[in-house]
Design a protein that fits this description.
The complex is a heterodimer of chains A (about 425) and B (about 300). With about 425 residues, chain A is α+β, with helices and mostly antiparallel strands. Helices cover about 35% and strands about 25% of the residues of chain A. In chain A, a hairpin with a 6-residue loop joins strand 7 and strand 8. The chains are: A alpha+beta (about 425), B alpha+beta (about 300).
Chain lengths: ~425, ~300
Amino acid sequence: MSEYQELVKSFQKSRNYVRDFLIYGFKSREDFSVKSGRTYDNERRRIESWLSEYIQADYGPQGKTLSLRLDSNLLGTNPLFRVWRSKSFTANDLMLHFFFLDLFREDASFTADELADRILKDYGVLLEPQLIRKKANEYVKEGILTSRKDKKRLLYSMEPEPARALPGVLPALLDAVRFCQLTMPLGFIGSTILDGQKAANTVFLVKHGYYGFTLEDEVLFRLLQAMHRQQAVTVRNRSNKTLRPQEEIFHMVPLKIFVSTRTGRRFLCGYQMKSRRFSTLRLDQIQQVTAEGPFDEYICLHEKLERNLPSCFGVSFGASHEMDTLKLTLHIREGTEDYILQRLRREGRDGIITRVEQDIWTYEKTVFDGNELMPWIKTFLGRILSFASSNAFLEQKFYRDVQEMARMYRREE
Amino acid sequence: MTGGELAAVCQEQGFAESSLYILPKLTGGEWHLLTREGGQYRALTRGHRTLPLTRLQRSFVKSLLPDPRFRLFFTDEELSVLRHFTEDVEPLWKQEDFHYYDRYTDGDPFDDPDYQTHFRTILAALSRRQYVNLSYQSGKGNRISHHYLPLKLEYSAKNDRFRLLAVPEREKRSPWIHTLNLQGIRKAVLLSRLETEDFDFEQMIRRSYYKEPLRLQIRNRRNALERAMLHFSNYEKKTRKIDEDTWECLIYYNRSMETELLIEVLSFGPAIKVMGPDAFIDLVRERLDRQMELFSRFGTDGNVTSAPS
């Protein structure tokens, strides 16, 4: 059995554990039954080490439970970015990194053989030129070093540091990245720009920020790559709909990433080959993405999706071919409650808003899946005169839910 | 550096257990980066050059260039420098790759020149801890003008808006933070005064939280538990299992979050029940009482069989 290591080759294995500690925070060792207890112990110890300041341990009848306590309204960066710093490395990787940063200080250029000589002379470390060439070529690919031919010699030098590459612009860039690392996709990459310049963010905060998104960033990165190359993908998905998570394989053409700013979820929207329909998968449930070959009809599918988007209230394209029409009649005191009208306009996703008479307004929308409007419609409780839908089930569900809520909160006599 | 000082750096910069792995390798020579002289360790390297931006980092910057929020920070000349700097890399994403389906549609006017000027003035004030004279028009149409010390710029992903969190100069000692929508700022002028006193912003916010957290009881039907856990994961929260089907979730909040939380709780319908504090239960009751009253007044009394069609 392998020894416990703080760093990992791949983050994938730890990802679901971090997510569960963050999202749930009440699961005990027994609840993590997917792998062995020893795996849980190692993952728990690792995550406790990575995120020690934010981990809270509680002891209850179910045993020890761990939770991650993060208040996204207060933090200048996403503490979960740390998980991306957990990649293991070899001693040579590490030493060469620091030797390069030292040797290339004076804008010098070296061949791999010259680097090997300097490393032996300056630091007393004997490394094969071949190994150094391999590392230098890796750094060229990453854009840290650059290489050029001088007759038969391949010379390596270092790209200029940001302050020289961007004279005068760097301070503004750092300000912008302070903001963008918190709010934009793949923000971790932005946070590494700040780290490289020893620049912290003390200016920006984010409200309605979902830190858990970063745990899906590797999946997102691969999907975006496939989208730009117009490729189909195979997706291994783990659904949590049942108590025991189930894995399924989907063949899809990835077309768009749907993001909710209110529910903490992001989705892959694509064309599913098997069912020949558009569908969505939650990014946090996607375990692996494998790119397939280019998909010939990609642009055509993309255009078709764009045409469908206005009928999609959230992420569902509906289970049947019938559309749902929903009509909400509201009592809004004009003049004093105009903010409710404002809410309908800004949150109603182009639903038709009509003034019926003084203080009475309707909102109407036809969508693939009316069920997706139900949580939003309930936010107008206290002002709803009636709710009607072409889907009788939704109508019944609405009135049943409101009655049940009224019962739940009934004052005891 | 002494061994103790090395350990302190590991503790500060690394993970909680990093020093257990790093120190023996550094001091034992497996990572040949230090030499020992007397009781002190010295780096073999003479200094380190700052790393250039990698291709991945430049791709990140290139993805941001079309975003109006990113452009707020730059002049046109600076943007053209950045375009040149990133011309040999591909963006990681394009704006059209994402569909923010529930974002409000009345976000800030990021392309408006006046808005951009106010944003930059406030950003400069924040960086230098400088007072600023703000003329502000509130959502209700009231116009005020005060000297403020800007503390933070808060961005809401849902509203697509910036808000300035600031303290008025004359209420510097007050624990209350004022929130001003950037969109409502009509004029922003830097004042010459700088603030030297430290404000513990986190403490100020935490002090504003109610002592009693919002206490929710979640019944796991229609996948409500997972939906709620994800939905409320942007709040500081604590959850415990009550029985096989029921969980209790505590959410820490302040007055400014109250209406939003109320709306969020209502959206879950009967799957979530507010157990406390009493004042919050009253807010839910008030909405439901008003709702039932409307049903009975307008003849839609909530009876399932008599629902309108």
